[in-house]
Amino acid sequence: xxxxxxxxxxxxxxxxxxxxxxxxxxxxxxxxxxxxxxxxxxxxxxxxxxxxxxxxxxxxxxxxxxxxxxxxxxxxxxxxxxxxxxxxxxxxxxxxxxxxxxxxxxxxxxxxxxxxxxxxxxxxxxxxxxxxxxxxxxxxxxxxxxxxxxxxxxxxxxxxxxxxxxxxxxxxxxxxxxxxxxxxxxxxxxxxxxxxxxxxxxxxxxxxxxxxxxxxxxxxxxxxxxxxxxxxxxxxxxxxxxxxxxxxxxxxxxxxxxxxxxxxxxxxxxxxxxxxxxxxx
Length: 281
What we know:
Distance between the termini: 49 Å
Number of domains: 1
Largest sheet: none
Order of helices and strands: HHHHHHHHHHHHHH
Oligomer: single chain
Helix content: 55-70%
Number of strands: 0
Structural class: mainly alpha
Shape: globular
Number of helices: 14
């Protein structure tokens, strides 16, 4: 076990809690929107699901992404190792490819019915704040990690790049899910290099055409390149409704309700085809 592998959990946890606390304080001091539910109704489940996800990952996978990268390096597996690519090239290339993979995966999880069934839990949050960034079903997390392990091994991504990518992705996801706003000019400039809260909030709109836009979590370039970018919500950030039209049940804020969501009723095959039967009983 290398020093990086040994210290990775400490580094990731420290960065995670630092960004989470900073965003919570920012939201409390200057919220972008009024919340429809008290934090005490939503936060226990949204924070609890990240604990469940972490435990499930450790039980399912003998090694996670950094461990897979180190194993690939030791065995000489992957494209970058086969090409003997220099670190200065492999590092930025890995970050770009991994980010593109996350964007692509996100689009696919919206378009394929069985995958949307898992992913929709992220969109059934009736409010949008930093804890929404943590709200993913364990089965989606397992599939995401499996995709990441395969990609890291096939590419031969350096272990440092994997850890750096995961720290950046976690931090930017919490940032752009924040119930905060930036000055308009700063937001317009920043969203050329980073997904901002106002940019990603559009993705959580109740309007299907807005839900199917702005898929990026970190870099905004893929949305612009592939035509999925939407500048602003039709109803404005203060007036827009968060969530899914066919899933408005406030009882779905409890942890067990989140875990059961994919299995309760037939899921719509598309975010643009809401069906009232998807409401929780």
